[in-house]
Amino acid sequence: MLSFLPTPIGNLEDITYRTIKLLKICEVVLCEDTRVTKRLITLLNDKLVCHIDINQKQFISMHSHNEQYILDNLDDEFFEKDIVYMSDAGTPCISDPGAMLVKYCQKHHIKYQVLPGASASIVAVAACGFDIERFLFVGFLPHKHTARKVQLQTILDDGFVSVLYESPKRVVDLLEIIHSLNPTVEIFVAKELSKLHEQFFVGKADEVLEILKKTSIKGEWIVVIDGAAKSTGEPITIDDISSLSLPPKQKAKLLAKLTSRPIKDIYDNLNEL
Prior knowledge:
By secondary structure, the protein is α/β, with parallel strands linked by helices.
């Protein structure tokens, strides 16, 4: 039996009883980073006295760069064992590897289960205080400034409450772009969810931006944008996107969002230039 296990996003006590139970009995642990997972299990044993025998398990690193290779080289007997899959933190397949393994199980009629548990996106949505009937999980935005701006403008115009993950290196830049598009849109920003130095910031984009400029940005960040307001900033133009040094396929996707034309038509035109 294969089980996808949620792991704490910060506080060890958020581990579930079912996760501990399956960690005790499993024979194989598939995980993003064996060092991180072994460290987590060691902490669970030390701090929560879980009695998980780390030496009686096979640990296999299975991440976004080698997932297909491992699946291509599995033997027929592999899934006869008790197996768990874990990401470094949170729920597998949510901005983490795992979806390819799920597809593999579906294709080969392998029984699997996904345990409910910690997810930063759900915690942030619950903590933001916005009136939410529906929300859009965006995850991480592109790194390039103009591409990020295009996607953020789309998010602001879509009408959804939207949830974004961001690194400390780019969180201020993210807020500066939001501010340039709509300085009065309501946003909620959380730092280090469930950890010792957890902090919440809520207010209009211009207000939160000024606070973050004076705040230590070390740690993990998540941003929730209230989708009720529309963008008021300078719109992104076709020329802005055309000037980007991006692969044609990515550029075609951005232009398709802006023009509502088919991606294939735009891609073909770009290749003819």
